[in-house]
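Sat 14:20. Reprocessing the chain from the morning session after the first attempt stalled halfway. Input below, unchanged.
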Amino acid sequence: MDSSPRRDGDDDNKGDTPSLSSTTPSSTPTTTPTPDLTPREQQADRQYLEEDFVPPASSTSHDLTHTYSWDNQLADPSFVGAPVTAFHHAPMSDGWDNIIVGMKVEVENADVDPMPGVFTAAYWVATVLRISGYKVLLRYEGFGQDGSKDFWLNLCSDKVHPVGWCATKGKPLIPPKTIQSKYSDWKEFLVKRLTGARTLPINFYKVVWESVSSVFRKGMKLEVVDKMRISQVRVASVVDITGRRLQLSYDDSNGGEGFWCHEESPLIHPVGWARRVGHQIAATSDYHDRCLMENLLDTDTTPDMFPEYPQPSGVFTAGMKLEAVDPLNLATVCVATVMKVLRFGYIMIRIDGYETDPTGGDWFCYHTSSPFIFPPGFCDRNNIKLKVPAGFEGSFNWIEYLASGNSKAAPVSIFPLRDNHKHAFKAGMKVECTDLMDPRLVCVSTVNRVVGHLLKVHFDGWEEDYDQWMDCDSVDIYPVGWCELVGHRLEGPRMQMPLKNLKNLKKDRKRKAGNKRTGKMNKKRVPSGGEGEEEDMVSRSPTPTLHAVQEKLEPSPVKAVKTEDVKSLAEDVKASTIKDEEDVKASTLKDDEDVKAVQMQEAPKEVIEKEKVQAMEEEEEEEIQEEEEEEVQMYIPRLLDAAGNKTMVPRDSVLDVLAWTVGHVTQFLEINECGNQVPAFKENTVNGEQLMSLTKGDLMRLANNKIGPCLKIENLQALLKARMSSAQARLLTRN
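Finished this time. Tokens:
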């Protein structure tokens, strides 16, 4: 029996291919397309044949109506998805090496006429032609070299089955009607095509189920980093689980404030972890007491549920300098300092150059085995740009920097060796990646760069400023098709469109206001398109602008205009203008005396300019007055008092944040003890809708990299979201 897969028209063997499972043989039918299993194997796997496979996605709590589909990108022959085997935490990663091109499966046949009295779907055998992540390109048997009906499916979905599944379930195998007349005996054709072919093991979906099941369950308690103060952890409960990703809710949060992470994330820990390692924790006295007495509840997580990190080979000491990925800006590697050494290999580090927080709120906990801390000189050796401390002048040199502060570099010997770390990732591969600045989101992404064990992941459609340095073993990166498999929403690429420069908004408004006042004087010089239609469109500047603000200012796409058309239009306007001026002169200046009379009546240039400026100022004052009149009608809540405590919001108040103007936003900041940040928000013209879309990176730039104000505004943002109506929340998500 031939052990290599064939395609229509192929007569040559392609060599032996290992079976998909060492314990479960491939389906190799002889007279009918039925799996050839021993009685013992049939009995062991009967439960998985008798029950229809229900994929994890069927029970998802996510809204998948606007989730992104990879289909358009998959059609590109150059598309390459990172292999499933590269993700140790991904479902089926251990056995994916045996998923091969040429293997056969049974899939639903949509190209068939309805059969009278038959209410079940028809199926047909298909061949795997390409593999990208969990997605496979399939071709129905019988089409030969005709690829017109090829289609992509998720191999782990309920639409794909091992060969023999239809025979066991009593489902009809019917060839597509497009090729029904191609063969007179389709049974003989299938037997010939399936002899020696590979298929999925009969228990394939059992393994899929097991690989997406979590060791956690809803209601369990654990300790997780406080996203409002990264130097401490808080107690949280598991609210939901999707594909081993946990949705957590802080126990001390009345507004449902929470956090998303993978169950193997280094940001979560078992109950009592903070006390054991000496980390700061915000918890009730009852929690502290039961951790001290080790009185665990049934809902408490335990250390055996979390990854175990290796102990350091050396000893870090407070004051040592190193290089580290900035936890608040994952696109940069920065100069950092060890601030405190905890127990069991944990250290607290601080990024050099940020404004000092006397309370230590900007310290962050890394384990000494973390892939995101490096010895001094790592960036230089690997051609990675090192972000030097703010205010540092001249070319950065580690020796001079250490000498200037009388500091000591962390020795290379105490960092784990990763030089020989092998993985399958390559630049250009597509993945689905968690946005760690907003970890509820999983986005379409590309591996942008590979440096040893480090991957620089780029979010498609966004600037490189939002890239993330990630470890090749990170549990926050997934294969193409993972979201579809587990029922998680996938955020698509951001569409690239021309953007209006934020700093020109006010100038634009004044220019248009001036045009309204002086339009009569320039009436003949305005093209037929109307005044104020020309947009000052510029490409996006990478660092100073706010991506969330800019996104809301994107104009609708317009039809491209050819260069020749632009030149022609310019000539027409010029000719029309000259002719209009000549007509005016001919009709009003009949002789030299008329010319002199007009010249005597013309106002000086300075007077005209003064009138223009005055008209513009009056227009702007009218607009400001109109905005202020609108703002009076808006309800601006005080959510926090001077001590930072939450306040009560009246039930009858209407909180329409998305309709807030820039003035409303600045008023909101002032009455919530954030008045120092008002100038930055005014300068960037942040309105209510844009306020609700600002990310951690945006807030850090607005707050001039001051973590305290950033966290305070982020907290206000979360409180506003918790108080928005469901309709507003849906609108914000859709935008």
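Residues 286 and 292 are 10 Å apart (CA to CA).
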